[in-house]
Amino acid sequence: MAGEILRSGLGSVTHIGRREVRFAPPPAPADMTGLRTPDDVFVVAARIPDIGRGKDALGALRALASGPGCAAALRARAAYGGPERAHGVEVSASFTGKRNFSRYDVEDEVGAALSAALGLPYHSRRQGEPPPPGYSGWRVTLDGETAALMARIAERPLHRRAYKREGVPGTLHPPVAAAMVHLAAPTDGELVVDPFCGAGTLAAEAARPGVRVRGYDLDPRALAAARANTAGMPSVRLERADAARLPLADGSADVVLANPPWGEQVAARGRVAARPGAWWAELRRVLRGRAVVLLPDPAELRTAIGHGLVPVHLRHVSLSGIHPHIAVLGPGRPALRPRHRAGRGA
């Protein structure tokens, strides 16, 4: 996230936490809604000390909505690419540690205060019903030290991509796919290949003018979902093929993006099911540039190295309770194994 913010010229990074990046935006208005790697982006309206564990302290959260920061946050979100008007407010909350209250208690306390401060109706999430169209989204976090109130800039969370019409098991989270594309950095004229395209998330994130994207999968349902999700993206072509036998010439792929089936949510098919290492050999055959691969365990890099791939970057990510790694690899020479002569003593 921080890298994308800096590369996009959207501000200077002031803090990098476990699940958030804070940044100071430039003085001039700038569209923040085009960011791809964050789950969401907010304007901070107010901060106060964390209220602690007790339910009787919930009323202190009303102070978050009592100052001018909330109206200023609504004005700022329009300057940063969000809607110019709000027809109401809805609040989502999260906190760390054990508390004697629920997130719905936090949401309703702050939502009522926001409603009074802004003169807008409040929609409670307690019953699980979605808010009416045009309601502004607000976020409350309590991290043990600080309670913060933030206004969502976009009309909906950034990770909810408009192209995402269909899904299949194992579908990649769009911001993670976007991060993989940023690490690969495809340029005009390059060929990007996804040998396990699934629902087409990596292909959709990689699609841009001048870049050719090819996605392959053996599952007809996955290909149908991918075609629905990449409709209207002329640079993307999809085809049924085995990841261990791609219809590509040697050294023809400038970029390979891959989220292989590691058997947790999606079972391997075809030649990869029979011989799991086969796709690494095929990756090395078609690759002439760089590969970005999502790995559940970095120990899998031993197999990649054995097939002539060189890791140049490794990054840990947190994803729905699991902690995979994103590896960037380039083509190299196959690893040499020492040979032992019979009859020689140690």
UniProtKB/TrEMBL annotation:
InterPro entries: DNA_methylase_N6_adenine_CS, RlmKL-like_Mtase, SAM-dependent_MTases_sf. SUPFAM superfamilies: S-adenosyl-L-methionine-dependent methyltransferases. This is Protein-L-isoaspartate O-methyltransferase. Transmembrane segments: none annotated. Keywords: Methyltransferase, Transferase. One of its GO terms (molecular function) is nucleic acid binding. GO terms for biological process: tRNA methylation. Residues 161-318 form the Ribosomal RNA large subunit methyltransferase K/L-like methyltransferase domain. It holds the Pfam family UPF0020. PROSITE patterns: N6_MTASE.
